[in-house]
Amino acid sequence: MRSSGWPRLSETSGVLIAAGHVWLLMIPSAKSSDVERDGRVAVHCGSPTDEWGVSARLTGWARAADDGMRGRLFEHAPSLAGRDEASLSIYALTLTEVVVTGPDPESGEIAIEWWTPGGGLRRTTRPGG
Asked: Which contacts (CB < 8 Å, 24+ apart) does range 63-69 have?
């Protein structure tokens, strides 16, 4: 969120699951400054192949990775090989909600699955269109 309280929409360099954490990688930017000031984040991941495909939203709290955490991430994430570690702002996410939506192949409706730490995994469908 900006200091005004409005969210800032900007690109992230990636979300990775490695070394026991969910990681948010960002280039140093106004967005990363916002996250440093207020760790509440929501990240949307759309389908790379189809505008009506599966999409996900991760919501939670981001905290800057310390040197030890950064080292574990680079050790366990081969996709980061050769990347300049100092060129990224890296945060470990504590998830408060994960929502995944997409077509339900059985009913043709929209499937919505969501997880929270207290509620576990739940699923529903609704008419699409």
From this structure: 63/39, 63/91, 63/92, 63/94, 64/36, 64/89, 64/90, 64/91, 65/23, 65/90, 65/91, 65/92, 69/19, 69/21
pLDDT of residue 78: 75
Q: How many domains does the chain have?
A: 1
The per-residue pLDDT for 66 is 85
List, in sequence order, the alpha helices (H) in 47-103. Answer: 67-76
Residue 72 included in any domain:
yes
For the whole model, what pTM was predicted?
0.76
CB neighbour class for 73 (10 Å; exposed up to 12, middle 13-18, buried from 19): buried
| Domain enclosing residue 112, as ranges | 14-126
Burial 82-100 (b: 16+ CB within 10 A, else e): eeeeeebbbbbbeebebbb
| H-type alpha helices, the chain | 30-37, 67-76
The radius of gyration of the chain's CA atoms, rounded to the nearest angstrom, is 16
